[in-house]
Amino acid sequence: MIAPSILSADFANLAAETRAVAGADWLHVDVMDAHFVPNLTLGLPIVQSLLKATAIPLDCHLMIEDPGRWAPPYAEAGAHNVTFHAEATDDPIAVARDIRAAGAKAGLSVKPGTPIEPYLEILRDFDTLLVMSVEPGFGGQSFIPEVLAKAKAVRRLVDSGELRLLVEIDGGINADTIEAAAEAGVDCFVAGSAVYGTADPAATVAALRARAATAAAAAAS
Ligand code: DX5
Ligand code: ZN
User: Fold this and answer.
1) Alpha helical stretches, state H, 102-192
2) pLDDT one-digit tens code per residue, 71-116
3) Domains, the chain, with CATH or none
4) pTM for the full model?
5) Interior CA angle at 215 toward 211 and 219, to 5°?
6) How far is Cα 203 from Cα 209, in angstroms, rounded to an integer?
7) How many angstroms does the Cα of residue 191 sit away from the middle of ligand 1?
8) Is 30 a catalytic residue?
């Protein structure tokens, strides 16, 4: 699955930018509060408008403090996924429960330097693990390959039936890096600059998906 990140889109033309990635599996929406990360993007009112502008499921990535307070309204609004950061709360299980009760899938995200071992148990309460492959805050950064060990570890638990969730990766994904992520067992690839930086974003989504599928099939054989 490919989730274009509208962080790299033209914020003055968001409805048109959703149409530019027709065929995308999810639309990744980066919510930043200028506290959890040193950048400020958009919030609930724009997500509500996006929900009216597109039928593509919204994958909301909350890079914010106090997700227990702010995450459930995104689920109530109709987001498909609501993902928050493990580093931002002491009670991730409660936040996941509230997101699910409000009707969305719950995602847990970890920064590149955050180990996954302390969270393996609680991943039972999540639908998605979002592995950050750059420091959250900005698009256009370089992929950090070391994070793939986390994707591989969780993939093994999914394949053995101990966990049931999607593994998603975010940051620096492009035609050069997507194959290594696919080989590591990633299910969903976020791509911002690599999609919106091209002349035909929808064609780029299809090309990235094909590249990932080929690499995953080769790794499985
Ligand atoms: C970064 C965001 C990403 C960002 C990825 O904090 O979470 O979703 O849009 O952008 P690229 O694909 O350009 O690295
Ligand atoms: Zn993101």
Assistant:
1) 148-159, 178-183
2) 999 999 999 999 999 999 999 999 999 999 999 999 999 999 999 9
3) 2-220 (3.20.20.70)
4) 0.98
5) 170
6) 10
7) 7
8) yes
